[in-house]
Write a structure and sequence with these properties.
By secondary structure, the protein is an alpha+beta fold. It has 14 helices and 13 strands. A hairpin with a 5-residue loop joins β1 and β2. The relative contact order is 0.11.
Length: 445
Amino acid sequence: MSTLPKTLLALLSLVCLMLQSQPVFARYAAIVIDADTGRVVHETEAAQRWYPASLTKVMTIYLTLSALENGRLRLTDTLFTSKHAASQPQSKLGLRTGQSLTVEQAIMAVTTRSANDAAVVLAEKLGGSESNFAAMMTQQARNLGMNNSSFENASGLPDDGQISSARDLALLSLALIRNFPQHYHYFSATEFAYKGRVMPNTNRILKSYPDADGLKTGFTCGSGYNLIASAKRNGHRLIGVLLGAHSSGERFEQMGNLLDMGFANSEKGLFGEHVSQLKDYSALPPPFQLSSNRCAGSAEHMGADSGSSRYEPIHINAPYNSRREKLTQLARAKPQNQNQSRGGVWTVSMSSHPKKIDADVNLQRARNALGPLAKTGRAGVIKTKYKGSTAWQAQWTGLQQGDSQDFCRKLRAKHMDCSSSPQVRQTLAAANGPSKSKSRTRHKS
């Protein structure tokens, strides 16, 4: 018998082994780093190239803060909206051509509402054009050691050349927190007031994770649902990046697990190398994360196979008895006083508005979102004092603690601002009651 078939078989086997050993696209990418040392606490495919989506705007704001520090900009400077900026797709502030806003308003619109139009307004002010500004972004990325990153626009809208990685975005976030601590509060703001509207921050990790105090969300069909979050516990800060979640809820839940894991590993001293030492293992392009269903057309447009992705939930194992679990257990075990045992001692508050009619509209939206639950307790709009100004706020009073939690869970699922707090006194407003209700300071949970 000839030895040729055996030789061919050996060659085929070698080829198969080589193919199997080739790196594959990460289904998701994640990293947690220690903000004090920059060392890695946990990572999964952190150097894999990925579409950053609106996490791009962290770099846009980084360059804006740099301009503030070197005197090129002031927070009170007036910016004007170009036709190009006004034409940006959602998400946006809704700026019209020629409309003005201050630098600080533009920063807040970007950090809280991920406004594409405001990002372009800042880019054109600093770079003369968005394309010039994108070149500045790429150069700054090189200066920070973000070797996998390149930028084509200021917003993160889909573009083949708009690329980064979890590692690079962690480096950027670390530099932002270290270099501009006096401005970090822009990423922590829970709402943004503009032109008579009070709009909640899209980053729900600020409400869902006890120690989180910033950063940024992002989404495109190519990237999936992305999130950068930073949390500080007992003076110790972590930065987490998650790329490629399949839903908004999944990114917030799994980021909570990532941070829990990060704090647990930090307490044990389980640190890896510095984040800058992580290397990309290939020159492969980013995966197209959501190439099925409603994103299929986008996938084909960007050269991806529209049938290539399957939905498999991300599951990051949080350590047993994590901080969130402990807080939940403490809340459940906390003894109720005599008044609490009678019920009717919790208040649910929604976002404040400068005009009563806006609060009335918000109350009706909440009723629709809550369904039958809206009949629990007493609903109304009250006059409040918020940051020294008069404001109007929709509230439900006379609730049991469990009901108040159910209220906020349902409202936040509809992307509506909600906070619950113990009711110290019976300062109840009648449903759709008159505006002469006693004013009081807004409670935050």
